[in-house]
Every structure is written in C-alpha cells, then in structure tokens.
Amino acid sequence: MVIFFTVALLAVASSVMAFDMGQSTRCVAIPNQMKVCKDVGYSEMRLPNFLGHSNLEGEVVPRSEDWRPLLQTGHFPNPPCRSLCVAVRDSCAPVLACQGHPWPEALDCDRFPAEEDMCLPPHAKFSHFAKDLPKPACQNCPSVEDAPAMKTVLDAFCQHDFAVTAKFHRRRLPIGEPEFEVDGRVEFIRQGPLLPYDTQHLIQQWLLINLRCANVLVRPGRSQLYVLTGSVQPDGTLALIRLFPWHKKDTNIAVATRKWKHHRC
Question: How far apart are CA 252 and CA 260, in angstroms?
Fold first, then answer.
C-alpha cells in the first residue's frame, strides 16, 4: 500500500515539478505495459516526468521496471510526508479544477504520515525559490480586442503592471488535447514585476492551465502575435487582463509601443 501511494504521488508531483522547472509538458496515456502504474486511479501522466524522461517507449516504460523488485520483495521506500502531499495538492488541484478534474481520492493527504515519522518532506530550498516567482493560475479569460485605437493600447499599458509581446502557436494534432507553445522570445514593453528569465515559461504554463482560453486565441496549426497586458496579484499569481492581436495592418499598436517609451500615465 505504501509503495502504491508513493508511486502515485510521485507521478502527480512530476507534473508540478515540470511546471516549476521550466519544461514544456504534455499529457499522455499510461501504457498497458507500464505494470507498476496499473490501477493507480488515473489513466494519464505528464511528460517530461520529474526524472527528466520524455521518451515513453525508450525511457519511461523501461525505467519504471526498476520499481518492480520493490513490489516483489516487499522492500518499500519511505512514503511522502503529509506536507509534501499538501504542497503538491495545493499546486496541482487548481490546475485540475480549471480543466474540470477533481483531486484524486487515491491521493487523500490525510493518508500520509506526519513529518515526525519516516517520510519524504518537501524540498525546502526548491519551495522557497518557487515561492518568490510569479505563478500561472486558472482565471476567467482575458478580453481580446481587435484593431484597438492607439489610446486604448496606451491606457492598457498604464493601467496594468506589465505589457509584453508574445507569439502563440497551436500544434495541429489528429487526436488528444491541443498543444500550445510560446513561439520565440517574449519581448517586454513594460516589465513591471515580471522576471526576464522566467516570463516565457510563465506564459507557456498559463496557456497549458487555461486551455479553454487558449483554444479561443489560436486556431489549429496557426500562430498569432499578441500584446498581453496584466498584473501579478497579491498572492503572486499572474492575471492576463487585456490581449491585443497584432496583425501587420495594426499600425495603432506599433505606434503605441513606440510612444510608450516617452509616455506619461
């Protein structure tokens, strides 16, 4: 039973660590030959996993066999502490809820031991680092305004904490959930509280969490350049508020971005 919950929590934790460590992730079906994950209470997992494995047949399935001797011999690793389960749940549950999925009953954190027992606690250094960064969150979809007036764009720059340009790309897939990515660099118009080394990853994860919004922003197999304005909330979460699709004919956006350098709100 202990190994069951350990493997299950590590599988979910891999999603969180992939979000926080800057990797673009995707959900895939757990293959039947991955016996160690049979009957864990869910049918999909996220790649890359927390070990950095991204190839299902070449890495994930073969390495999962390393767990089988533990199951066969009865030698169990230390289970996660309740605090680790809570940390994973608090980070993952809002993402699952945003996409219409409840937190799995099999991962009820009350089933895990308290920290005074022999168990795996959260990584303090990693938790402290992640806490200081803005975080993507589930939100109501931002307004999208085509062909805005120059003053409208300048007002958005003034009213919100940050403004950036980013190109969204949507892969055309025959089956499964659509995949979105930020294509190329994110350029700052107004940096505000955003961090240069984290912003592309932050917006990428916003797209993965807010799939319902992302579906409206980009058609399958296409890319679209946007000006994004928004704020970082008191709890550290990112909120995109106004989006302006930037087409070649949109001279007002180009003029507004140039004027912003000398503009006073």
Answer: 12
pLDDT at 20: 41
Separation of alpha carbons 227 and 214, rounded Å: 15
Assess whether 112 and 139 both reside in one domain.
no
Domain stop point among 90, 120, 150: 120
State how far the Cα of 124 lies from the Cα of 131, in Å rounded to an integer: 10
Using one digit for the tens of pLDDT, what is the confidence trace for 189-211?
A: 999 999 988 899 999 989 988 98
Determine the Cα–Cα distance for residues 108 and 82; give it in Å rounded to an integer.
9
Residue at a domain's end among 61, 94, 120: 120
Q: What is the CATH number of the domain that holds 242?
A: 2.40.50
> Rounded to the nearest 5°, which phi and psi values hold at 232?
-100, 120
Mean pLDDT of all residues in 163-167: 97
**Which of 22, 21, 4 is closest to 76 using CA atoms?**
4
Residue 113 lies in a domain: yes
Indicate whether 199 belongs to any domain: yes
